[in-house]
Amino acid sequence: MSRTSRLLTLLQLMRGKKRPVTAAVLATELGVSERTLYRDIAELTALGAPIFGEAGVGYVLRSGLFLPPLMLNADETEAIVLGLRYVDQRGDEVLSHAAANALAKIAAVLDPIAQDAMRNPTLLPGPPGYGYPENRVPLSMFRDAIRSQAKMHIDYTDASQAPSQRLIWPLALGFLNDARVIVAWCELRGAYRTFRTDRIAAAGAQGERYPGRRSDWLRAWRKLMEQNESGPFTPDKN
């Protein structure tokens, strides 16, 4: 983690504390030594952060105009809030937690008018859908493979209950109203395929990085889907 990222993370940690917190606790949560923590607090204080501390009590971040307000108009604010609430409804536990954290961070630096628009939106995401079938493989495993461009072995059962074993190059996760799917290049078929995650009985990283750039593979898939009348998220049938 870069020093700038660490300082911003420290500020976010302190924003979430309603009472003074000791340097030892902050250092542990940040994963640094207390000595480094003291230096970081001193630097933030010098930059104008309203951090106050007392021996034996701990540190507290008081309200103040330390960060400049994020300049978003009403439409931009509601678009972000709508998107994050949609993620909260349709994402897994990891994404729901991330959406809540993102909303808190955005709210902390919005001007008062935008904050009011955020608390009382004119746009709502609607019902959360029909519920998702249970996954036997956590979505975090697919996300990790996508980010690292790792080939994956999967045991898959298609809509006709035919089992198969595939070696795939995972490219993206799709969140539909009633299912989650993974977009991938399938070595068995030599083509792009889309697999419902609830039909994957087992999965594991193969230990090899697939060639090229994920963005290029995904761009080619999108171009192909523009010509596909069945839609981009039709699960694999063969």
Automatic annotation (TrEMBL):
Residue span, Helix-turn-helix type domain: 6-59
Entries under InterPro entries matching the protein: CBASS_pafABC_assoc_protein (IPR051534), HTH_11 (IPR013196), WH-like_DNA-bd_sf (IPR036388), WH_DNA-bd_sf (IPR036390), WYL_dom (IPR026881)
Gene3D superfamilies: Winged helix-like DNA-binding domain superfamily/Winged helix DNA-binding domain (1.10.10.10)
Domain WYL residue range list: 140-202
UniProt protein name: HTH domain-containing protein
